[in-house]
């Protein structure tokens, strides 16, 4: 039995259906990330779990118990708000103690647990400060400590790293990941940053317009995106209109597909393509259409090419760069090849 | 003269130039001039009357004296009136807060047309003069045939009419109602604009609605509460219309005395001295309220 189960959640605001039948389950101790463009309903789904949003239809279960009708203050679901929502009139320690005081815990116990929670997030000495006297990263850690001190069953975080600068973000991401692993709390993150999703989660749920496009481990999503939306949202991808003949792609015969002959779309990542100068076949397992370099840019370890290979869009190819190698000049004739045909996806033509 | 006073920043040339550049001050200039000419100067003139000798309507030149002030401060009547002004204002101000807060909170929880209607209802009493509203209370609270007594007698709750009019009760009731909008408006502005996520955070941490209200909503509105308290206290403490009308002929507060000495008795010296006492004590109380408010609200000054 998964720890968190959301069953066909539907929520509309006026005529707009913000959540359109979302079903999701998260195993105990796992980290799930909701990934999707802004406005797709991630926050609304999270708020439904926390009890701030009442769904029009569907059920929410935590630990097998239906909590759909439970008010937010009776759920054991910790919520870290997007901008932390710390109480500005309380000190750091008072913020962290808030939930314990509400639960009428004895004073010495509160003191003890607050001190421990602040230690976990390395804020021990700052207990007497007010939130306005803290940096963004420190505020975030207070928000996390305030929730963790209550030892909730579930931890929800809405874009927790958005307000942090890039460097701090990276260190907080790893810190939080370690912390969650250590405490073993089932967690759901919201983000619109794909690298954050890849890094933090056991499972990624890619959302679009109130529905899930794909729910899978991050690498599975990267390697086998269900559709072009997922493929382009996580990493980059070429979506090529191709023909199928005898179970293989016409332009890339190495790529086989168990589909009837006819038109189809091929999803292939830029780093799964390679190219060689000239019109000659680049070699074993590499067979593809000839093309012309439109644009090339060297980025240290790799070279990014845009190649006109007869498709409506330029083909993007990323190749590893050897030391001293200079990109091919624009206009050079090249031959394109697929590195791993198994990592390509052939889907129905026109799938969005 | 200290070093700071002669430091370059304080040189007159600099100061004038800074004033010319000081965009912060200039927009307020018309208002400041207006207030100086029509408020500060007349007030100073009035107060000055308390410290000179007036003989047959003329100021006797060069006759500064503290004697009238001394006399007033030694008059137990003045102290009794000040005490009444004070407790009537305090009770009325607290009542105003207790009545205004739920109204402002309700306003912050309503939306659309209801919100607009509430705002109109809060503001509309200001469209009639305080005098008219005080007279209305006269009708409501008045003798045997006043609305309150008439209703209670008809219902058999009481046999004899309650004596409300011409007591502190009438004055406090009237003042509270008349000053209500001045308490509601600052509260309403702050409560309507407050950050609702703080309440959600409180719920999420396990607090009930009531706990959230008292631990989050009320503390966050402390600045507005104290702004309202200071404002309403000042206008209650110095109000003379309501005590005069609802307190009746034998009822007086310090403000009523100022009015009577100046307009009825025409003893301008005593009127001015009492006005000075009223004004300075009012200032002191308002200052105290603001100070207490900022003490409670110290977190808002906390910055990195
Ligand atoms: N309380 C609300 N009232 C009306 N519309 C809302 C409300 N909350 C969210 N929405 C709408 O629902 C959509 C999804 O919002 P949200 O869940 O915040 O998206 P995300 O977090 O993925 O950016 C948006 O179009 C937003 O305008
Ligand atoms: Mg959001």
UniProtKB/TrEMBL annotation, chain A:
<keyword id="KW-0067">ATP-binding</keyword>
<dbReference type="InterPro" id="IPR003439">
    <property type="entry name" value="ABC_transporter-like_ATP-bd"/>
</dbReference>
<keyword id="KW-0813">Transport</keyword>
<keyword id="KW-0547">Nucleotide-binding</keyword>
<dbReference type="InterPro" id="IPR003593">
    <property type="entry name" value="AAA+_ATPase"/>
</dbReference>
<dbReference type="InterPro" id="IPR013611">
    <property type="entry name" value="Transp-assoc_OB_typ2"/>
</dbReference>
<dbReference type="Pfam" id="PF00005">
    <property type="entry name" value="ABC_tran"/>
</dbReference>
<dbReference type="GO" id="GO:0043190">
    <property type="term" value="C:ATP-binding cassette (ABC) transporter complex"/>
</dbReference>
<dbReference type="InterPro" id="IPR050093">
    <property type="entry name" value="ABC_SmlMolc_Importer"/>
</dbReference>
<dbReference type="GO" id="GO:0022857">
    <property type="term" value="F:transmembrane transporter activity"/>
</dbReference>
<dbReference type="GO" id="GO:0016887">
    <property type="term" value="F:ATP hydrolysis activity"/>
</dbReference>
<dbReference type="GO" id="GO:0015697">
    <property type="term" value="P:quaternary ammonium group transport"/>
</dbReference>
<dbReference type="Pfam" id="PF08402">
    <property type="entry name" value="TOBE_2"/>
</dbReference>
<dbReference type="GO" id="GO:0005524">
    <property type="term" value="F:ATP binding"/>
</dbReference>
<protein>
    <recommendedName>
        <fullName>ABC transporter domain-containing protein</fullName>
    </recommendedName>
</protein>
<dbReference type="InterPro" id="IPR027417">
    <property type="entry name" value="P-loop_NTPase"/>
</dbReference>
<feature type="domain" description="ABC transporter">
    <location>
        <begin position="4"/>
        <end position="234"/>
    </location>
</feature>
<comment type="similarity">
    <text>Belongs to the ABC transporter superfamily.</text>
</comment>
<dbReference type="InterPro" id="IPR017871">
    <property type="entry name" value="ABC_transporter-like_CS"/>
</dbReference>
<dbReference type="InterPro" id="IPR008995">
    <property type="entry name" value="Mo/tungstate-bd_C_term_dom"/>
</dbReference>
UniProtKB/TrEMBL annotation, chain B:
<dbReference type="GO" id="GO:0005886">
    <property type="term" value="C:plasma membrane"/>
</dbReference>
<dbReference type="Pfam" id="PF00528">
    <property type="entry name" value="BPD_transp_1"/>
</dbReference>
<dbReference type="InterPro" id="IPR035906">
    <property type="entry name" value="MetI-like_sf"/>
</dbReference>
<keyword id="KW-1133">Transmembrane helix</keyword>
<feature type="transmembrane region" description="Helical">
    <location>
        <begin position="169"/>
        <end position="192"/>
    </location>
</feature>
<keyword id="KW-0813">Transport</keyword>
<feature type="transmembrane region" description="Helical">
    <location>
        <begin position="24"/>
        <end position="54"/>
    </location>
</feature>
<protein>
    <recommendedName>
        <fullName>ABC transmembrane type-1 domain-containing protein</fullName>
    </recommendedName>
</protein>
<feature type="domain" description="ABC transmembrane type-1">
    <location>
        <begin position="82"/>
        <end position="289"/>
    </location>
</feature>
<keyword id="KW-1003">Cell membrane</keyword>
<dbReference type="InterPro" id="IPR000515">
    <property type="entry name" value="MetI-like"/>
</dbReference>
<feature type="transmembrane region" description="Helical">
    <location>
        <begin position="86"/>
        <end position="107"/>
    </location>
</feature>
<dbReference type="GO" id="GO:0055085">
    <property type="term" value="P:transmembrane transport"/>
</dbReference>
<feature type="transmembrane region" description="Helical">
    <location>
        <begin position="119"/>
        <end position="140"/>
    </location>
</feature>
<keyword id="KW-0472">Membrane</keyword>
<comment type="similarity">
    <text>Belongs to the binding-protein-dependent transport system permease family. CysTW subfamily.</text>
</comment>
<feature type="transmembrane region" description="Helical">
    <location>
        <begin position="272"/>
        <end position="293"/>
    </location>
</feature>
<keyword id="KW-0812">Transmembrane</keyword>
<feature type="transmembrane region" description="Helical">
    <location>
        <begin position="213"/>
        <end position="237"/>
    </location>
</feature>
